[in-house]
Recover the amino acids of this structure.
């Protein structure tokens, strides 16, 4: 018994009832579709489709902030040159 004269949690009747209950809970039912336990697999030979940070337009100010820099004129200009030189690779290095 615990200090408040209650049995430990694992010995309480409601816990035993919950363990013995085999009824499905609607909120956890997926209907057999893909989920964390049953993923959907692609056919062999099909390239995977990935969405990356470079899939959207980026301003030099956004890149400077994403790199942890203040958007000062110098940092924004450096980010602009980086975007101009490396294109999407500049973003992928920071936001994969």
């Amino acid at each position: 018994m615990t200090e408040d004269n209650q049995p430990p949690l694992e010995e309480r009747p409601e816990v035993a009832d919950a363990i013995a209950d085999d009824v499905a809970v609607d909120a956890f039912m997926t209907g057999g579709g893909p989920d964390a336990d049953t993923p959907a697999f692609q056919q062999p030979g099909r390239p995977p489709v990935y969405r990356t940070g470079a899939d959207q337009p980026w301003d030099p100010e956004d890149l400077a902030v994403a790199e942890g820099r203040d958007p000062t004129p110098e940092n924004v200009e450096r980010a602009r040159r980086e975007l101009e030189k490396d294109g999407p690779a500049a973003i992928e290095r920071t936001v994969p």
Q: What stands out?
A: The chain has one domain: 9-94. The chain has a mean pLDDT of 80. The two ends are 53 Å apart (CA to CA). Residues 73-86 form the longest helix (14 residues).
